[in-house]
Amino acid sequence: MQRFKLTIEYDGRPFVGWQRQDNGPSVQQTLEEAVFAVTQAKTLVYGCGRTDAGVHAEGQVAHVDIAKPLAAFRLQEALNAHLRPAPVAVVACEVAAPDFHARFDCTGRRYRYDIINRRTPLTWQSGLAWHVARPLDVEAMHTAAQILVGRHDFTTFRSVHCQSASPLKTLDQLDVVRTGDRIAIHAAARSFLHHQVRSMVGCLKLVGDGSWSANDLRRALEAADRTALGLNAPPDGLFFASAHYG
Amino acid sequence: MQRFKLTIEYDGRPFVGWQRQDNGPSVQQTLEEAVFAVTQAKTLVYGCGRTDAGVHAEGQVAHVDIAKPLAAFRLQEALNAHLRPAPVAVVACEVAAPDFHARFDCTGRRYRYDIINRRTPLTWQSGLAWHVARPLDVEAMHTAAQILVGRHDFTTFRSVHCQSASPLKTLDQLDVVRTGDRIAIHAAARSFLHHQVRSMVGCLKLVGDGSWSANDLRRALEAADRTALGLNAPPDGLFFASAHYG
Question: Which positions in this protein are listed as binding substrate (chains A, B) (predicted)?
Answer without folding.
Answer: 111
